Each structure stands twice: as C-alpha cells, then as structure tokens.
C-alpha cells in the first residue's frame, strides 16, 4: 500500500448532513466482482440526471474542482450500508480524504483499509471550511492536524494503529497473520 | 464494583490479544456470515496470498442480495430471470465457495434466504457469540445477546484468513424501554421511535443495549427487528441480554447445541443475563406506552412521525432537500397520501410473524387497484412455513405478488425496484434517496401499516382496520 504522510489540496464542499453510502455509490453498481473503475459511479445519482447527462452544478462536474482531492462534507458522512465500494468509488474518482464533524463507523474503518483518509474536526473550523470552498488545506498525519489558510491548525483524532499503517503503507492482514500462534493457542485454550 | 455491560462480557471472552494504546485488540469471531455482494474481492485477496479459509465450519454462506425473487433453482433458470451482472455475482459466489471448501446455501437450497434471517433460523447465532458479516444489518443477531456488527470487504478477508478482526472496544449506550406497546404498535414502530430519539448519528462509536420490561416482553422476532435497525442510529451494534425467550427459541434448531452441549451452553448463557447495575457511557429512556404507528416522511430513518402527526417543519437545507425529494409538505399529514407500491420483506420484517401480522389484516380484503404489493419472505424456510399456513393464498387472493426469498426491493440490486417518483410503503430499513431505485420515494413502516396502506391505496393507520 502507498504510504501517506500529507494530503495537500484545495477543497470541494458538499454541505449536506448524513450523506449515506447509497448516495456515495448506489446499490445497482454493487454487482461488480472487482474493485476498480467505480469512480464513474461515485455520487452517480447526484452527479448525473435520469438520462445520464452530467449535472453541471454538482461538485465533481465543476471545472474548478478538477484535480482536487479533499472533500468537505456535513456531519455523519458515510452512514448506512457497509459497502466498501464507497471508499473504492471515492478513491477512483480522484478523492483522497473527507473532512467532516462525524464519520460513520463502518465507512471510517473501510476508508482506513484503503488509504482514503477520514478526518473529523471541530464544528468551528469545519463551518469555516464549509463556507470557503476551494480553501487550500493540508491534512498532516504526522501532526494529526488540518492546516488551514487562516487561524490555528485544526487537530483531528485518528486511531494510532490505523495511522501507523497509513504512514508506513502497512497492510493490516499481514499484521493479523503474524498473530497466528496466539490465535491457535487461544482456540485450544477455549476448546 | 459495578457489574459489566453485556458488551464487556462478550468482548472480554473473545480478546485473543488485548488492546494497547498503539494496537487494537485481536478479537475472535465465532460466526462469519457471507453473501455474494461483499465477498468476491475478499476471496481475491486470499487467492493473491495463497491463503485458505481458516475456519470453514465457522463460515455460513448464502445468497440474498442479487438473487431474483422469481423461481430460479438452477443456473439455467437464473439466466432467464436475473440481471446479467447479478447472475455473474451469483456465479462468482458459487465458484468461490467451491474453491475454498465452503458449504453454500445457494440456488435450490431449502436453507437459502436473507443472511440475517437464515443465521438465527438455523440456530447458528448464539448468546455470547461474536458475529460479523459484510453487511451493516448484522446488528440483527444482537437480539440473542451476541456482539454482531457489519464489516467491509477487506475485513471479510481478514476473518476468512484468520477468524479474527482488529478492533477497538466501542462505547456503550443503554436504551431503557418501559411500558406496554398499544394495539397496532409494533417492534418496528418502537425502533423507529428510538432512532428518532437518538438521531441517525447518535449511536456512532457505541453499542446499544436495549433493556427494560418492554424489551423483555418482546418475542425473538420482534427483538431482531429492533436490533436490526441499530445501525440506522449509527450504532456499531445493538444487543439484548439473553433470557428464557432466547433459549426457548434456539432449543432444537439444527445448529444450536444439542444434548449435554446444550446444558453446558445454557449455563454459560445464563451468566450473560441482565442483572442490572452496569454503568453505560450514556442512557436514554423510551416510554413505549405513548407510541403510535410510525412512518418516515424524509430520506433517512430518523425522519419519522407518528401516523397521526403532521410532517414537522424542516428548518434546514438538508431537510428541505429531503422533503422536496419525497414530495411532502411540512404541517400536513402523511396519512392519506396515495401509494403506488407496498413492499413487505427485508431483514427487518420478513419473518413468519411479520407475514402473519400482515396476512391477518389482509384476509378477505383486496389490495387497492392502483397499488402493486410485493411479498418477499425472508428465507425459503419462512416461505414454506407461510405456505403451510395458507398465508400465500391470503396474499395472492388479495392481489399481492408472492415471491421467492431475498433482499429484493429493500435495495433493488436484483431488479425488483420502485420506479422514479413512485411512493412505496416499505417494511425495510432505509428510506435513503434512490435506495429502492433511482428517484424512488420510500416510507418506512411496520408490516401492519404496510398491509393497511396496500388495502387503502394510501398511507393508512392499521388500527382503523383492526378488530377491536
């Protein structure tokens, strides 16, 4: 896995609370058996009209957002279904991180496994980001702060092991597989 | 010293490696439920590393999301009735289970069905178990006093390979429910009221433990309905301490402990019973006696109202957007709003008692002319049981469609969808935009409210159709 230390980008903003994973990727795109190429499905039904024409106002279709990698979204981002297709689709659409005031548990866990960085900051800097789309930010995993164009950096919490894995490109399955002896011993003790 | 929460008891009994500030716990998983949608990429990960499934006997496989609800017992029949991509996913599941030596309750199996209906019905879910599945409604199994939660596909791979997960211990929230549910008020109405109280993100990072005399009085199927929707409050899981109701339900089921093992299991399970005195991070109290049938009017499960209550004023842009999507106006009742489709099914409300409740209301009545009603039993076993009781005939005589089991119109992956702009009263769990199909409008309700709405052709109060 790719090592991640800092993500620097201008932001794009979706000022909506409770964005669920059915919006991030609708269920009809889940019949895939792979994980690639889901970027076109990201926010599909907000991004395209019923006839498949791009909605010019939607953030992913706006010219000024091309190349931007940080999404700022309302509270409780990623609620609903456990589909890991949600971070897969966001990553494939070019996004690398989301900043919110609350991120749903399963989505956060799935994101961390794929190098998509879920960032929860306080309401005040978050509100400022909401009101200033296109702000230049740096998500710094070393200092666990979001550097903003003005004011003090906004600290965020990230589980220490997940942070270590992101920064060192560690695959968690490898770590788990190294616990094999302890797992076997535990199974025998219990039996 | 305060007594332990149910979460703490189950967690402590499954910690292979305790958590430290730097590393999460290695948590042992007793039962891994798998289905066709969230596993193909996990099996790929095993293949890439040359790994086997570590504990096939702890893995229960079925197919539910992409399967058609028209009869298809063979691959040839599947190709005739299924969407091509969905059929491809079904084939991949069959191939993966064969390659990795897993028994699959697949096409043609009498034990196939929605994974969260099949597990309990086979007696695979036990009190004190850890249960996971690549599906957020895994919280259903908490009804038995299991710690049961949804995971993503990468974690499905972790469990297949190691039978363990890396996890931090979640927080806790007690949901204390007292009082008696009135006539026509069901477990579904109760859980919708709980979600409205907590909020759709209010349970984030926490495990809910439902307690109180109302919960104790619920049947196992009602408890499953409540625990099922814990995720709609953002909770990691929902749990109910086991009691005689749970043991009686499990006793004699094929995968439940038998003979001397049963006695030993019962002794272990009794230690999980709620004797009070545990400290929770947060507690909320719900008065069940004041509840009425509930309906959702917006685009998340927290946006609900009593059926006799007008849609509340919106107050923010997100709520405005939701009301516009639904085509509803603040200050007006949803009661009486015209209905196009009624869906009776999903892991929330597709068990035999749900079908009995709806059929009880529909016996001798007709689905309104302008309404399509789809009845999708939760499993093939539920289907057979319903047919043995003649419930299928009640539904078909009323003009409803009687289908094969599966997730169906809850999320429309298999082609069972609600057309754009149509209003569906649904016994499922999510009213998100487009959940039942692009542009579909979903009103979540109980099986009783769904049946009453089918008959009236409009959102209806089931109490008006019930015998006094």
Task: Summarize the structure in words.
The complex is a heterodimer of chains A (191) and B (468). By secondary structure, chain A is of the alpha/beta class. Chain A has one domain (6-190): Aconitase, domain 4 (Alpha-Beta Barrel), CATH 3.20.19. Chain A is 32% helix and 16% strand. Chain A has eight helices and seven strands; from the N terminus they run βααβαβαβαβββααα. Chain A has helices spanning 21-24, 44-47, 85-92, 105-114, 123-131, 160-168, 172-177, 180-190; strands at 6-14, 70-73, 97-100, 117-120, 136-140, 145-147, 154-155. In chain A, strands 4-3-2-1-5-6-7 form a seven-stranded mixed beta sheet. The longest helix of chain A is centred in the C-terminal third of the chain and has 11 residues, at 180-190. The N and C termini of chain A lie far apart (37 Å). Chain B has 468 residues and is an alpha/beta fold. Chain B folds into three domains: 6-167, Aconitase, domain 3; 171-289, Aconitase, Domain 2, CATH 3.40.1060; 295-458, Aconitase, domain 3 (2-Layer Sandwich). Chain B has 16 helices and 19 strands. Chain B has helices spanning 6-12, 40-49, 75-81, 84-99, 115-122, 153-162, 187-198, 213-216, 220-228, 244-250, 259-270, 317-326, 352-362, 380-389, 391-398, 447-456, and strands spanning 15-17, 25-28, 31-34, 59-62, 104-105, 130-133, 147-150, 164-167, 171-178, 206-211, 237-239, 282-287, 294-296, 304-306, 341-344, 372-375, 401-402, 423-426, 441-444. In chain B, a hairpin with a 7-residue loop joins strand 1 and strand 2 (25-28). In chain B, helix 7 (187-198) runs parallel beside helix 9 (220-228), helix 13 (352-362) packs across helix 15 (391-398) and helix 13 runs parallel beside helix 16 (447-456). The longest helix of chain B is centred in the N-terminal third of the chain and has 16 residues, at 84-99. The model of chain B has no long low-confidence stretch (mean pLDDT 97). Classes of the chains: A alpha/beta (191), B alpha/beta (468). The interface between A and B is large, with 50 and 65 residues.
């Amino acid at each position: 896995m790719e090592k991640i230390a800092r993500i620097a980008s201008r932001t794009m903003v979706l000022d909506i609370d409770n964005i669920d994973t059915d919006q991030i990727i609708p269920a009809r795109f889940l019949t895939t058996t792979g994980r690639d190429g889901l970027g076109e499905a990201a926010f599909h039904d907000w991004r395209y009209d019923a006839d498949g024409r791009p909605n010019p106002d939607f953030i992913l279709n706006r010219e000024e957002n091309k190349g931007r990698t940080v999404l700022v979204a309302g509270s409780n981002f990623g609620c609903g279904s456990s589909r890991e297709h949600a971070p897969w689709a966001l990553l494939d659409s070019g996004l690398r991180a989301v900043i919110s005031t609350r991120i749903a548990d399963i989505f956060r866990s799935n994101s961390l496994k794929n190098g998509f960085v879920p960032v929860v900051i306080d309401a005040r800097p978050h509100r400022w980001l909401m009101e200033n789309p296109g702000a230049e930010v740096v998500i710094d995993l070393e200092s666990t702060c979001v550097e903003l164009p003005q004011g003090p950096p906004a600290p965020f919490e990230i589980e220490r092991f997940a942070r270590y894995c992101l920064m060192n490109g560690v695959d968690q399955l490898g770590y788990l597989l190294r616990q094999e002896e302890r797992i076997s011993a535990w199974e025998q003790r219990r039996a | 010293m305060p007594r332990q929460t149910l979460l703490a008891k189950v967690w402590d009994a499954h910690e292979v490696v305790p958590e430290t500030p730097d590393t999460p716990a290695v948590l042992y998983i007793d039962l891994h439920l798998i289905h066709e949608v969230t596993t193909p990429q996990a099996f790929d990960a095993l293949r890439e590393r040359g790994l086997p499934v570590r504990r096939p006997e702890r893995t229960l496989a079925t197919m539910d999301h992409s399967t058609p609800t028209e009869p298809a017992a063979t691959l040839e029949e599947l190709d005739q009735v299924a969407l091509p991509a969905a059929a491809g996913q079904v084939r991949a599941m069959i191939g993966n289970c064969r390659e990795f030596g897993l028994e699959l309750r697949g096409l043609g199996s009498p034990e196939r069905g929605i994974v969260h209906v099949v597990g309990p019905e086979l007696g695979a879910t036990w009190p004190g178990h850890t249960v996971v599945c690549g599906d957020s409604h895994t919280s259903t199994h908490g009804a038995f006093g299991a710690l049961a939660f949804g995971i993503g596909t990468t974690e499905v791979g972790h469990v297949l390979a190691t039978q363990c997960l890396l996890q931090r211990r979640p927080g806790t929230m007690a949901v204390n429910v007292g009082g008696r549910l009135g006539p026509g008020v069901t477990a579904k109405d109760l859980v919708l009221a709980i979600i409205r109280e907590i909020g759709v993100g209010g349970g984030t990072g926490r495990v809910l433990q439902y307690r109180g005399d109302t919960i104790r009085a619920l049947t196992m199927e009602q408890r499953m309905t409540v625990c099922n929707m814990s995720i709609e409050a953002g909770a990691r899981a929902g749990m109910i301490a086991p009691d005689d109701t749970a043991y009686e339900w499990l006793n004699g089921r094929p995968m439940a402990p038998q003979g001397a093992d049963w006695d030993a299991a019962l002794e272990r399970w009794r230690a999980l019973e709620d004797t009070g005195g545990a400290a929770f991070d947060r507690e909320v109290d719900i008065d069940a006696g004041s509840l009425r049938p509930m309906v959702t009017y917006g685009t998340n499960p927290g946006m609900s109202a009593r059926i006799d209550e007008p849609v509340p004023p919106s107050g923010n842009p997100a709520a405005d957007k939701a009301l516009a999507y639904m085509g509803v106006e603040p200050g007006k009742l949803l009661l009486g709003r015209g209905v196009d489709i009624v869906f009776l099914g999903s892991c929330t409300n597709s068990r035999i008692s749900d079908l009995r409740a709806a059929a009880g209301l529909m016996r001798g009545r007709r689905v309104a002319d302008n309404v399509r009603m789809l009845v999708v039993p939760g499993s093939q076993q539920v289907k057979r049981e319903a047919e043995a009781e003649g419930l299928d005939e009640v539904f078909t005589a009323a003009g409803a469609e009687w289908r094969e089991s599966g997730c169906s119109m809850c999320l429309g992956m298999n082609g069972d969808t609600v057309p754009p702009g149509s209003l569906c009263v649904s016994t499922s769990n999510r009213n998100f935009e487009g959940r039942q199909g692009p542009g579909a409008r979903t009103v979540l309700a109980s099986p009783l409210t769904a049946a009453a709405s089918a008959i009236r052709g409009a959102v209806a109060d089931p109490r008006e159709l019930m015998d006094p």
